[in-house]
Amino acid sequence: MSSTSKKSDKRGFSRIIGLSALKNRLGNIILTEDNSCVLLTGPTGSGKRKLANLIAQAWLCDNPTENGACEECASCHHFDQNNHFDYKELKPEDGKRIIPTDDVRSELKDLIMLPRLGKYKVILIDADGLNEQGQNALLKALEEPLRHTRFVLTASDPSRLLLTVRSRVVSLRVDRRSEEEICQILLEELSSADDNNHDCEQELAPAGRSGQAGEQELASADRRGQAGEQSLAPAGGCATLADKDLTFYARFSAGLPGRALELAHGGWFRELRAGTADIYFSLDKAKELDLFTVGSDFFKEHKDQADTALNIIQSLIRDELCLLWGANGTIVNSDLQGELQAAYERKLAVLTKKSEARDKSSGLMRWQADADPEGFSEEERELRIRLTHAAEVVEESREALQRNVNFELIITRLLLHLKRVAAGEDLIESRKNEKLS
Ligand SMILES: [Zn+2]
């Protein structure tokens, strides 16, 4: 994007909301000669790619300050236009996970040539795409650094990197942002996208390049299409995005700006949440067989978004726990509070009935509920155990998904556990012995 099209007055690292300690460190790194390689780590959507671009631009800039690039010099102009001679990006091709080692070698070989514009040649490498050979090729370049080369690496999973590589880089973590910071990011990004929808892609990936988070944002912008834009009352217009919507997306984003933008950018998330919530609220009433067919079909249909669906279930469970604690103000799915309250009361009623029946048949006195330090009744305590159990099963399911365990098995098991929790049936205690590996 050209400098003139930038709608914000912010420049350099001040474009990044939050992360003040990290930005201070980056200022020092840019202005000192000693550091030739920076590794940014953080989960997908944390914004490390955007930051990596700003670092690269700052190293290339003719007049860098501790705040990064000036965004006015010839070098910055070329960078904005995506045609800087001394800048290269190395990442897997679309649809591929690994960068071919030959590509790594040839790009690194090109670094030998002196820069054409400024002091440095800069290469940005998506280190998640480097296999062991690729990393070894990179290692050589890091071991014998040229005065005029600078490296910016990004990695979601730095543990995959060879220790020898990690020992030669300045490693910096891109932390999760606070809820307020995410709201601010959403407001800024979405309002600038709304100013000019055609500019949307560029605005979402400032400095002209789509980063990891940016890529997701673009993908969801593609998915959104015309209809989607209408369904989410102007996709992203801050004028129409109420504070409660911002908070809603921020809470689901787990502190990751890329995820927040992806969620806010299409009708798909609201649809997924509506479908997931429908299943969750019908758990106690549904027949097991129906649940497994209808529920499984829904999840199969949304297999690519399974992780988000699990987040949604997790948030519903958490909200029910908030009701139990009387912390109604912190409910994430506040628009579903009526349904949540009803589901919560049904669960409690089933447990009350069950304990009454048990007391009657055994002829025993009830437990001394008032002995509970938190003042919970026996049924409330039981419900708390059950909801915590449900949350644990969701977490196990998420881990199993990451390990590529059979999808249908994961979902069936999850639904079975959740149904038992909702319907007041005996929990399956021996979870650890179940086969989920
Ligand atoms: Zn500049």
Written description of the protein model:
With 437 residues, this protein is mainly α. It contains 17 helices and five strands. It has helices at 20-31, 48-60, 74-80, 101-110, 132-143, 163-166, 179-195, 200-204, 212-231, 243-252, 257-264, 267-282, 288-301, 306-325, 337-362, 378-402, 407-423, and strands at residues 37-41, 87-90, 121-126, 149-155, 170-173. Helix 4 (101-110) links the parallel strand 2 (87-90) and strand 3. It is elongated. Mean pLDDT is 83; it is low at 1-7 and 198-239. Bound molecules: zinc ion (ZN). Zinc ion (ZN) is lined by residues 61-63, 69-73, 75-76. Zinc ion binds next to helix 3.
Kindly list the characteristics that best describe this protein.
437 residues, mainly alpha, Rossmann fold, five-stranded parallel β-sheet, 17 helices, elongated, binds zinc ion
